[in-house]
Amino acid sequence: MDGISRGYNLYYRESDYEDSDISTYSTDAYGAGINFGYPINEITRLNFGTAVEDLTIKTYNDTASEIKRYVDEQGADAQALKLTASWTRNNLNRGIMPTDGSYQRLSLETAVPGSDAEYAKLRAQARQLFALDDNHDWALKFSGELGYADTLGGSDPYPFYENFYAGGLGSVRGFTGNTLGQPTTPSGNSTRDRTLGGNMLVQGSAELIFPTPFVGDQRTVQSSLFVDGGNTFLSDCYPVLDADATGQLRLGSRLRRPALQRRPGALLADPGRPADVQCRRAAQRRERRRYPVLPVLPRPDLLTGPRHPRYLAAAGGGPTGVYHHAKLTAAFALLLMSAIALPALAADVAVLDWRRALMETDVAQRSMSELENRVGSQQQQAQALEQELNQLQQRADSLSDSERQQANQKVAELNRLMGEVMQARQESEQALLQRAEPKLQQAVEQIIARHSIQVLVEPQGVLHAERDLQNVTAEVTEILNSML
After folding, report:
1. CA torsion 453→87→160→157, rounded to 10°?
2. What pTM was computed for the model?
3. CA pair distance 419, 226, nearest whole angstrom
């Protein structure tokens, strides 16, 4: 049957949840799995998978007392045999910025009996769009998501590291990502307002999509007004002193405008605001300035230069990225001809986000972790210098000559550290690209042969499609994991 897929994965993953604005702890996990995909029809698909995983929890002096209590009682190591299943129905009118149609997804993950933490995790997502005019410039969009998880019998608490999280882009906008839910109880010298998420999730939004002024092609830029609401909840509080449960719905608003933030193929801004003063202050406390951990990302200039003629990267104002199984240098012209004169059949056209496919491979994740380890000390020094310079800036008018000289020295030292971090990033990017680029070529060729694809385009290059195009990004990642 055409469209059946099978994939394998073998991974080792280090995760620092403080970097995601969750609580202060980290995990090391390694495991292996296999998954299968079965198409029911053109818009519906079933996926099944199984995996074994060994996870180790690491705590620190300022780790929340809920986590320390859990580790003391349940142990820092957990082995699990996981089974997953999902059903997806995608009937949106196009893959990028849809204005009509519907999308539903139902997924179940369970750690079967015999695992150290036995649980089941159910998640339901839905989107419905209604076009309000024939040109699809005006539309109503409603979306919602529900999640529930619990242990399978027994009196052990649900593993906190499998909780749901809410807040941020794609969730309740106007809040820092992953920060909604019951606050943790600080321990040690920590006074940070953190959350563990919850084993229950409720969130939804309503949007009015309207034409963007002064923009001719409304399919590449989308403006909307929206209201979001949602939170995470705990059915049973983790045992701590002075536990505090919260459950407020938060509201935000967003206007997508081309002048605010530029992204490939779409321009987006989220000036969301909490609904009340108390929530606003809590959100402002969470909005601290962080010195970023630099990911290993393929730069468009590296992939579009003369050393990589096979790739055309989609970027704002640049050419649309297209991959063709014959000669990629002619693919862009082929896509234009197809769109204008001889439109390709949907079965012959597929979508591939090759950057995401590459960055979700296990080797890319390891590369990111290795980079963070190499530049961690420089980042900490740079963060400390930045804080000192901010303090000096606040009293710039009263600085003495010697203090101004010290400030200039600190600026020079900050620039040096930033240069070292950027150089390490570029070296990691080059090494990853040199290793993965031939394999990426082979993986794409396999996908093209498997699905008889005539034209393969990046998501940013899809201006219009009568129905949702097949997305082969996950399949490319699976193939790359078996090659790298």
Report:
1. -150
2. 0.52
3. 41
Look at residue 366 and tell me whether its pLDDT is greater than 80.
yes
Tokens of 181: 């839910």
Q: Where are the beta strands (DSSP E) in 175-263?
A: 200-210, 223-233, 262-263
What is the C-alpha separation between 144 and 128, in angstroms, rounded? 9
173-184: per-residue pLDDT in tens?
888 888 898 888
Closest to 205 (Cα-Cα) out of 224, 185, 232 = 224
Count of Cβ atoms closer than 10 Å to residue 328 Cβ: 19
| CATH of range 1-287; options 2.40.160.50, 1.10.357.10, 2.30.40.10, 3.40.50.720 | 2.40.160.50
User: What does residue 269 show for φ and ψ, rounded to 5 degrees?
Assistant: -140, 145
pLDDT per position as a tens digit, 175-234: 888 889 888 887 755 556 578 899 999 999 999 999 888 777 777 778 889 999 999 999
Rank 79-88, 260-269, 394-403 by mean pLDDT and report only the highest. 79-88
Task: Say whether pLDDT at 172 is over 60.
Answer: yes
- Extents of the domains making up the chain: 1-287, 289-484
Characterise 189 by phi-psi region: left (phi > 0), alpha (psi -120 to 50), beta (else): alpha
Map residue 449 onto helix, strand or coil: helix
CA distance 370 to 424: 11
Distance CA(121)–CA(387), nearest Å, equals 41
Beta pairing, strands 349-351 & 470-471? parallel
Strand bridging mode 349-351 / 455-457 = parallel
Structure tokens at 46: 């079933």
